[in-house]
């Protein structure tokens, strides 16, 4: 089998503390890790998702594309490579362009979750502070509508008053040039739950809990940009995850059921990771759905999906190959 491997690579000079633009892109270690895993199933053709990708992809004609490209421009950036694959009529792994674009719009995601009765915090999407109108759920979290990797999520995203919310909206709109999502703050335990597979075979991997006790004493209990990229470094790791999470059977079932329900209604395919946080009564609510989850192979980099897979007894290669197999099976391809 010939496997096209599409990705975006971080520019060498991008340092997370000065520049968050490339936080979602992969480093060479991840690309090499995925490539090595895929090589067990066939010939791998590296296809960096730069602007001439469409023609290189057409020329390469792989049997299937293993896609982890986060994309370059705009709110639909994650759907570009799958859309190109569809344009050339090529099978690819992971969610389709519609799901990828939807999940990168946290407001649209929450509308769909709400429609299906899946718990998610009250919210509003605004283009500026003047649009805040009736929303009054304090404390609130204000975040960019279309980002990931905790971009734009800092101490000042946690707002205790309307005045703080207005300031946070102004800062999101000015810095990220996109609407802001204003959401009621969920103060309970936080989990992330990875899903692998499709239909009746979709299964939740062991649940990870975010350990807020590991944050500096004066930090707001959120998994912020600082917590993800600045305070947590391989040479000085933050003890930020508990995996498997210490949860009773009832809470575990609620987290898994809610995650699988979110996966299903958003029509995720092959893999995804759902972030959830409990309200004051302990009910898990969906924060967001990540259909292109981070997959750094180095355990010191604290990447959730590989960590959860390891806890389930799947090593990195097996985890990648299970995604490839799930994608191939949907297209009737045999590995
Ligand atoms: N409504 C909320 N209530 C409490 N914490 C939140 C809320 N929204 C976001 N957070 C915190 O901010 C972090 C990042 O938010 P998330 O929506 O998952 O964005 P990202 O795409 O950057 O991961 C979460 O892991 C959580 O700790
Ligand atoms: Mg998240």
Give a written overview of the molecule.
The protein is of the alpha+beta class. It has 3 domains: 2-94, Rossmann fold; 119-184, ATP-grasp fold, A domain (Dna Ligase, domain 1, 2-Layer Sandwich); 190-315, D-amino Acid Aminotransferase, Chain A, domain 1 (2-Layer Sandwich), CATH 3.30.470. 31% of the residues lie in helices and 18% in strands. The chain contains 10 helices and 13 strands. The strands form 3 sheets. Strands 8, 9, 10, 11, 12 and 13 form a 6-stranded antiparallel beta sheet that branches. Strands 4-7-5-6 form a 4-stranded antiparallel beta sheet, with helices on both faces. β12 and β13 (284-290) form a beta hairpin. The longest helix is centred in the last third of the chain and has 17 residues, at 249-265. It starts with a strand and ends in a 5-residue tail after the last helix. It binds adenosine-5'-diphosphate (ADP) and magnesium ion. The site of adenosine-5'-diphosphate (ADP) has 19 residues, from β5, β12 and β13.
Bound ligand species: adenosine-5'-diphosphate, magnesium ion
**Could you tell me the mean pLDDT?**
93
How many strands appear in the DSSP assignment?
Answer: 13
Which sequence of SSEs, written as H and E, runs from N to C?
EHEHEHHHEEEHEEEEHEHEEHH
CATH architecture of the largest domain: 2-Layer Sandwich
Tell me the CATH superfamily of the largest domain. ATP-grasp fold, B domain
CATH class of the largest domain reads Alpha Beta
Count of alpha/pi helices = 10
Question: Quick one: overall form?
Answer: globular
Going by helix content, strand content and strand pairing, the class is alpha+beta
Gap between N and C termini, in Å?
7 Å
Estimate percent helicity.
25-40%
Largest sheet geometry? 6 strands, antiparallel
CATH third-tier fold name of the largest domain: D-amino Acid Aminotransferase, Chain A, domain 1
Which spans have pLDDT < 50 for at least 5 consecutive residues? Answer: none
Approximately how much beta-strand content do the residues carry?
A: 15-25%
The radius of gyration computed from the alpha-carbon positions, rounded to a whole number of angstroms, is 19 Å
> Structurally, how many domains make up the residues?
3
């Amino acid at each position: 089998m010939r496997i096209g491997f599409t990705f975006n690579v971080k520019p060498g000079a991008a340092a997370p503390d000065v520049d968050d633009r490339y936080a979602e892109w992969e480093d060479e270690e991840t690309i090499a890790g995925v490539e090595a895993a895929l090589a067990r199933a066939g010939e791998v053709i590296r296809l960096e998702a730069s602007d001439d990708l469409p023609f290189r992809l057409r020329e390469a004609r792989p049997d299937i594309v293993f896609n982890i490209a986060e994309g370059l421009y705009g709110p639909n950036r994650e759907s570009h490579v799958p859309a190109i694959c569809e344009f050339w009529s090529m099978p690819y792994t992971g969610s389709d362009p519609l799901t990828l674009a939807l999940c990168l719009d946290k407001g649209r995601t929450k509308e769909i979750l709400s429609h299906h009765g899946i718990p998610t915090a009250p919210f509003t999407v605004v283009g500026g502070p003047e649009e805040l109108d009736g929303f009054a759920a304090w404390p609130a979290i204000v975040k960019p509508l279309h980002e990931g990797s905790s971009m734009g999520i800092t101490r000042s995203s946690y707002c205790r008053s309307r005045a703080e919310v207005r300031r946070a909206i102004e800062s999101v709109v000015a810095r990220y040039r996109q609407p802001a999502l204003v959401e009621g703050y969920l103060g309970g335990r936080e989990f992330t739950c990875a899903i692998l597979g499709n239909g009746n075979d979709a299964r939740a991997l062991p649940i990870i809990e975010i350990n807020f006790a590991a944050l500096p004493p004066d930090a707001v209990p959120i998994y912020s940009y600082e917590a993800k990229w600045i305070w947590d470094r391989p040479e000085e790791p933050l003890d930020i995850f508990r995996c498997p999470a210490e949860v009773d059977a009832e809470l575990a079932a609620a987290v898994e059921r809610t995650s699988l329900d979110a996966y299903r209604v958003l029509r995720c395919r092959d893999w995804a990771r759902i972030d959830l946080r409990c309200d004051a009564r302990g009910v898990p609510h969906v924060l967001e759905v990540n259909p292109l989850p981070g997959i750094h192979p180095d355990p010191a980099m604290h990447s959730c999906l590989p960590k959860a897979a390891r806890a389930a007894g799947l090593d990195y290669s097996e985890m990648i190959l299970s995604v490839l197999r799930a994608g191939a099976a949907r297209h009737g391809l045999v590995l």
